[in-house]
Amino acid sequence: SMTEGLDVLSLLTDAATIAKWNNENLPSDRMSIENATILTNAERWPLMIDPQLQGIKWIKTREGEDLKVVRLGAKGYLDAIERAVSNGDCLLLENIGESIDAVLDPLLGRLTIKKGRYIKIG
Question: Full-prediction pTM beyond 0.85?
Answer without folding.
Answer: no
